[in-house]
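for ur thesis appendix - Beta-galactosidase. copy paste whatever u need, i formatted it the way the template wanted (i think)
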Amino acid sequence: MNWKRMIAGLGLLGLLAIEAKAQGKLSEVAKYNFNYGWKLNVGDVTSAQNNAFNDQSWKGVNLPFAWNQHEAFKVDISHLSTGIAWYRKTFQLPKEAADKKVFIEFEGVRQMGEVYVNGTMVGLHENGAMAFGLDLTSYLKPYPQENVIAVKTDNDWRYHERATGSTFQWNDKNFNANYGGLPKNVFLHIKSKVYQTLPLYSFLKTTGTYVYATDFDIPQKKATVNVLSQVKNETSKAVNAQLKVSVVDMDGKEVASFLGDSNTLNPNETKELKASKALADLNFWSWGYGYLYTVTSELLVNNEAVDKAVVKTGFRKTEFKNGMVYLNDRVIMMHGYAQRTSNEWPTVGMSVPAWMSDYSNSLMVKSNGNLVRWMHITPWKQDVESCDRVGLIQAMPAGDSEKDVEGRRWEQRTELMRDAIIYNRNNPSILFYESGNESISEPHMSEMLAIRNQYDPYGGRAIGSREMLDSKVAEYGGEMLYINKSKHIPFWATEYSRDEGLRKYWDEFTPPFHKEGTGGTTHENVNGTKVVDASAYNHNQDAHAIESVTRWYDYWEMRPGTGERVSSGGVNIIFSDSNTHYRGQENYRRSGEVDPMRIPKDGFYAHQVIWDGWVDTDKPAAHIIGHWNYDKNVKKDITVVSTADVVELFVNGKSLGKGQQSKRFLFTFKDISFQAGSIKAIGFDTNGKKVCEDEIKTAAKPFALKLTSIERPGGTLANANDLALIQVEVVDEKGNRCPTAMDMIQFEVGGEGTFVGGIAQGPDNYIGSKTIPVECGVNRIMVRSTDKVGTISIKATAKSLKADAISVKTIATDLGALSTNLPGENLPSYLEKGPTPATPSFTKTRNTVAIIGAKTNSNQADAQKSFDDNELSEWTNGDGVARIEYELAREATINQVVLKLAGWRSKKYPIRILVDGKKVFEETTPTSLGYVTLDVTPVKGKKVTIELIGTSENSNAINLVEITGKVDEGGLKQTKSKMPQLPIVEVEFYEAL
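the 3d part is after this line
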């Protein structure tokens, strides 16, 4: 296309000329992979920043590489090694970099990084969490001279900011696994002297390119795509500049090309340029549908392209209203995981290749999770981009610990949030910005909102914090462990289940016969607090899966469609076992639905069943918890997780009847005797129609080992840093996995690869050991490629079992000091769930009957607080009789009363409910994570009375222990009154449809 002719036709002549040398022509490569060819020394040395320093004895590494990553899962988080480590790299600039701008981008340094170029210090980065960039232009030597970059790092837990003496709140031994040095990617950017800036605010004070969509028409697949790019003129002459934007779909087809307005930039001036175009036939990004476009904005100066910014992004519409989250005009209930931001693996920590981030994060989607809430610290860019590809919604924190702070520590949090928003605002998977892992003050919330409004006003993201239940500023909120409801901003639980269970333990009937509560009963938290009895956390797989389903029920019961005040869901902590705060006898957190090698536990499949849908269930499913390889005399309860209405169990074709249903999704079959063969669960709907089934068959005796590989799509890279997962199973003669096998496996790795290792229960968790047991018949190890193309050979042997061998072929990649192959390049998106359905995501189940007033002789001033949609306010009777009467907006036949009573998980209240004086309910309320639904005798009326008819009872039916070791009392307040109290946080009345 002749752009000169087109521009003339548009009347955009008159571009001011400047020297071609000062600008340079657009290079095909503007961003380089700077990960290869580093040298590492653990420990401080003098003069390591100088070019003449001899680093020949240092260890050669390719980034990302944390110098202490080999300790991941081997030691307690608080025992990870800390100290000084140096990284050095020698490189040449390309010829075309002459008279250009050169920037370096670090995705992160832990905790502190002093950056030197050719002996001169060019920057000090200290927050340990966020990406940062530096302008290296004036420090570099031109081609063909060599340059040396040296980075001194310090990952001391007690590191203090040099200028202020302040520590960083998020440098916390409970949750922020301390993988030191350069554990993330590094890039080099070469740009003309009139250029689009980078989204790296610290040091550079620039905001980069912002791509967003407006004017959505979801049914017609239309939206306006906007590109707002910050442009800087570092020449001595004024220039006229404009943006030329190209939008390319996932098939490589250009779907749009358009120009922005021409603008004059004076010398050393920075200005934002914009280009917009309404587009049709768009594919909108959605849950499990990581559809992405490549948006390239070229900067035209003097009718010549001199710079480009490439943004991989997706377009989606969001709204946060009516207590619900809307994605592409469809309500989506949050169900997913609170995951440690380190997202680590054994032996390699967080420094994994990009495809492994995709593999891990896609498993969350495959378990039917739709949200990952990264905990406490901003996730690294690799995970952020991975969630874009796999279609996983993200909640992005900045950095904090467990409370609000003041002074410099608060300033650090706002600075980090600013930088994180600027850096990640083009990533469509981010829907929430989390301002704190604990409630923050309204002034602080207002500050965070202002940051969002300044730097991401059009991104369709809500900003809030944990709790914030009565905030007038926050755009979402939600407690930890408890359920909240709202008819205004959405509330979703930031952590609703903290239980732990090692994958090795099936149940108490299977070796090693793990009984409920075994392990960790005298555990001391790394923060020094004691958990006197942590037995409630320590499950086997059966109990852990059941607990996960039980805890979810309270949220599902209050889902969208159940009234004007609803729960918007919640996230289970955590997805994969983590090298962070723990309560069991192992030195790592085992709350995951998959183990550290991402092998699923039974809870993974349970979540697959109960979360299959945006709100209501899309497809009925069933999962039998456990295995079917017991000793012949075993008799045990069998639990089936199912979204069917009725479940029938069959053993070797013989029906054992219907299961006892509880918590909607659990079906229990008592005292089932084991018989070798098959066990099958069949689910039926209310009409008796079969809708789903699951079957487990008995495996024969162990016969052989079976190896399979899980590799990077497109092939394992020969870059001395790529990894392949090797799964080993013990199988019978027919190839069926033997679920109770615990054989020791010996691995041999040869060819163009090295052994890395896996994890299992035992000495040092078998970290780095070439002999490792299978658990429940399966385990995995990792192998690493060398930098030579070839074949990695892996052989596995075990006593009395047939051995197996497998090979992994590696492929060539650019290993240059300035590599043109970027880490996440060409990785496919996960599209299995398809575009957002056009149908409603839920069916309304009942009608809300509004309350217009309340009367009581006990504390009348607070009566309205019991139905004010504020979960931090409540009514209680004080010194008077525990009785309150509600007036409804209209006469209605009430059939359900929903209550949130203070002390919800530890107190039971004997109450009576009357409608127009007629008794409709007289029982003791159950405990819950917040709300209880009481079915009452349907009676038509306009006044409903609730009264306490006895003294509340203590209950430990829900045994959840806080991080402090104490059981939270759920809103109960101290009172000096001798009268029995009926503290009502919220009350709601419903009638049938």
